[in-house]
Amino acid sequence: MAEILPLRAWRYSEEWTNTLEDLVAPLFDVVSAKQREMLYHHPFNSIHLSVPQGDNPPVQAQKTLERWKNEGILKQDDLPGIYVYYQYFRLPGEGEMRCRKGFIAQIKAYDWSENQILRHESTIVSAVNDRIDLLAATQIQASPTHGLYEDESQELEKYMDAAIASPLYEVEDYQGVREVLSVIHDARVISRFLEIMKSKQVILADGHHRLEGAIEYRKQQKDTFPELKWKGSDFHLMYFTNAHGNDLKILPTHRLYYELDLSDEELLEKLSQWFDMRPFGDAEELATYTFQRKWSFGLVLKDQAWIIKFKPELWSQIKPELPDSLRNLDLVILHEVLFHQILGMSSEEQRKSKNLAFERNFSRCIREVREGKADFAVITREIDLEQVLEVCKSGAVMPQKSTYFYPKALGGLLFASIRQDEFESNYEAFFEKY
């Protein structure tokens, strides 16, 4: 049973509504260094809460938050609500406008073992610890994680469509996406959201580190307020989208490798033992190349490019202990063969190594290699949503940075407090039968 609750969100006060585009920020793990520096220049941008600076960043964020509350920069909504969140976007080369529909609410920070929220990627311990420290200091969540649920009836969409006609905000974000936020206060409608979602498993699309931080913080606070049915420290802010009938797009994330000990010739020779190799004329043309066959990749070296296709007769050598849903994935093949078998990196080393980088921007991959900064780039293709769902349900996890759900949710549209006096509300009213 996935327990969700409405929330009394903290939001920028009305006087800031017309300049909201200057206050929102990308998620902490996708914001580039240059973007970050630009956003820091605005004293009230939400990045000061999501990626704080200073000698003690969590304490700095806590002080900033209290100042913003005291000065009325942020105000808490009087009534709890379900916040409807639509993202309108186009993909490069497309004229069609897409719309990803969803809603933001609070969900209990279930431990992975409870099987209510399913993950598909592993996490990095240091990044999780940073999120725990920040959450403990501020007791605020500046951006939602992204969860998928499956509901073929699409009953909730009719309520969301009605609400989005009267938006609180409309902003264009750093991705060129039109972000629209509205709210539902009707207790009857909210109770229907809670009723439908209680039978759903949630598949975490984005935000593994933030959710794992919330899970650990819930464990740390398990003995606080033992008399209360609903505790703020138990809950986590999430953006929910229906996996059925929605514009859910997953973009590829490419791989870059630095400080290679092998020559190009040695690398190609080792790869040829596992892959069929075909020279490719211009590396930049890989941006429009359609990888029709699974287990195929683009390989970019400084002065040459290749299409490499894994030899299917060798598949039996790829981690037979894993479920087939995982062994069949392109990135499992890539990480096991190239980074483990050829370059000798264990799974743990792949997660922590500074030699291996993940890059969504194709042009940046080419530039890094051409300028001699990276030794090679591997161009990957996108994963299918059905594959993500299958892996999640198997209980397995993919290599890190296997998915890039697009567009990303935006930080700063609303904030969720888990401080008990700010979290408390008459939640019982939403569980009454209407």
UniProtKB/TrEMBL annotation:
It holds the Pfam family DUF1015. InterPro entries: UCP033563. PANTHER family: DUF1015 DOMAIN-CONTAINING PROTEIN, LMO2823 PROTEIN. This is DUF1015 domain-containing protein.
